[in-house]
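#struct-help
A.M.: can someone run this one for me? Single chain, 147 residues.
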Amino acid sequence: MTFGYSPFPPYLTYSVVNPEGRSVHTEEITIPKGIMMHDCAITAHYTIFPDLPLVFDFDKLLKGESMIGWEPQNGCRIGVVPRFGSDETIQWFEIEESFLFHVANAWEAGDEIVLQACRSDRGAIETSADQDVREQLGRLHEWRFKS
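D.P.: on it. Structure tokens below:
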């Protein structure tokens, strides 16, 4: 499995690659904005994508500001797509306002999909000297979703 995210449409693409290294399934997955996705998770039958509020904004870049910013109005959700699924078959699950950079593990447990990742309240791109570094970089967190 591979994925690509972009500040330009399509914002997210998903592919399955066969053992010979050829792409055998590619789909565009609809998300509202270009975001800093950085990582995904893979289980035996699913691929998991975070759609979180660390977004690309070229209007800000043109004003001399950072092109990556925290926009909680973008929402926080996790998408679970079957191995050969599509935009029509992805399931979205709303989560608390947060960000994740790196996935630790993911698996299927009965009718649940379990995702473990480093979770922070905001993207670690925005940091401050008076904030605990563990809160900036995230702590291991577990989410469970019904498949």
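A.M.: thanks! Helices lie at 58-62, 133-137.
D.P.: also worth noting: DSSP finds two helices and twelve strands in the chain.
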